[in-house]
Amino acid sequence: MDFYTILLILAIIFLLVISAFFSGSETALTAASKATMYQLEKENNTRAKIVNFLKNKKEKLIGTLLLGNNLVNTLATAIATSFFISVLKDNEKGILYSTVVMTLLILIFGEVLPKTIAINKADKFALLFSPIIKILVTFLSPFTYLINLLTRIILKLFKFQISSDIVTSENELRGVIDLHAKSEGTTEEKDMLHGILDLDNLQVKEIMTHKKNLEVLNVNESTNKNLKKILNSQFTRLPLYDKNLDKIIGIINVKDVLKNINKTKKLDLKLIAKKPWFIPETTVVLDQLQEFQKKQRHLAFVIDKHEALIGIITLEDIIEEIVGDIEDEYDVKK
Predict the structure, then answer these.
(1) Which runs of consecutive H residues, i.e. helices, occur in the chain?
(2) Which of 28, 49, 88, 184 has its CA 20 to 30 A from that of 100?
């Protein structure tokens, strides 16, 4: 075997390694976890920043990798054809052998093997390859721009609509949660994460406490009677009404009662009552949670379209929708 033949074989091997690099990089960078990369970027990981940069430039990234991969595969096949023709001294056989051998070599060593390895260690290889890929993306950007421009023109001719926005749907996110719970998570974690997603699909009327189950104070009853109700209640906040439940005039906080009970001879609940907060029954639970946080409140009164009271919603009701029932020492065991 002469020096020229050895040189051709080494060139083919080298190009197959480069092909494997491009294929593995494509798989690793597209499959790398967004959540993991953003978390690493928050921790000032330079390579994670590069990965996120490349993932945000997906069109340029894919264009560069495909350009590089096809270039080396074509060159490897051309060199192999030259090699087999020179060895076999027959053009037709040389082309046939080159086609069969290079198809197998590229398929196994240039595609399947590197992609299988990369998909199993996507985050690791994405971090490893990202600096090199970024240089290639920058260097080959004029070529990829022309290719993408030509592609868009062809797609436009066929009236094919393309979108640059990649949106992760809620169903896809739910699938990821279920997969995580199946592989390494717990049922409790899965239920909590689903609970958070469900908040956007629930209205307050679906999780509120109905007015018939409320513990309330009547402003027209004696102070002693109301104090007895407060002391016997398991709640720290009680609605205060006048004449009927549709006329809520405030919220009594037990702490305010304790602070004022010895300051005056006669405790006036009207004076210490907090202003009531009324919300429509169709309010989305997630929106209400955000309002609770913004207003630093823990309770709101739910009214129907006729502005009649139908129940109350509390911060605890929403939290229980996420984490499940929260029982304290005063809750009655069922």
Answers:
(1) 3-31, 34-42, 46-56, 58-88, 91-105, 113-120, 122-139, 141-157, 170-183, 187-198, 204-207, 223-232, 254-260, 269-272, 285-295, 315-323
(2) 28
